[in-house]
Amino acid sequence: MSILSPAMSAFWEASLAFHGHSCPGLALGCRVAADALTLMGMEKPSQDEELVCVAETDSCAVDAIQTVTGCTLGKGNLLLRIRGKHAFSFYHRDGKGSFHILWRAPRKHDMTRSERTLHFLGAPASELYTVSETRRPPPEKALLSPSLACAVCGELTAEPYIRLRDGQTQCMDCHVTASRILE
Known about the structure:
Elements: H1 6-19, H2 24-40, E1 51-55, H3 61-69, E2 78-80, E3 87-92, E4 98-103, H4 113-122, H5 125-128, E5 129-132, E6 147-149, E7 156-158, E8 162-165, E9 168-171
Helix pairs in contact: 1-2, 1-3, 2-3, 2-4
């Protein structure tokens, strides 16, 4: 991948080390993440929660988003809002901007997997995705909640995920609902 810039090469190598294999989906995420840092005017990944990403996919791309941007599920600055789209909204908590990236590159059947991977990493952005305004306000900072014991299984569960049944706390797995809508 020597035709890539030194920065993109470093991002790609870090993404590969984290993800474990090369694939177009990882390249898609690496490209979006690297360009998001540039668009946000950041020279390095988010150290805390200053950069937030809302990903609308749970594909391989998300591993590169974590590696390159520093947005992670554990820090609470990577949120999954799965809609089956390669779409990512980025927010800077200091008010330095926000934008939505929607991947639009057509699936090129005349390219091998390796060629598609390289294309995603190096093609002009205009061939790959669009950037628009975010459609939602930035998410709140990560919430620290007390844990409560489930009255059925006894497992400690974060308070927002507890349900009450006959006055007893129940985790979402133990809670039997009368609703016909599955959670």
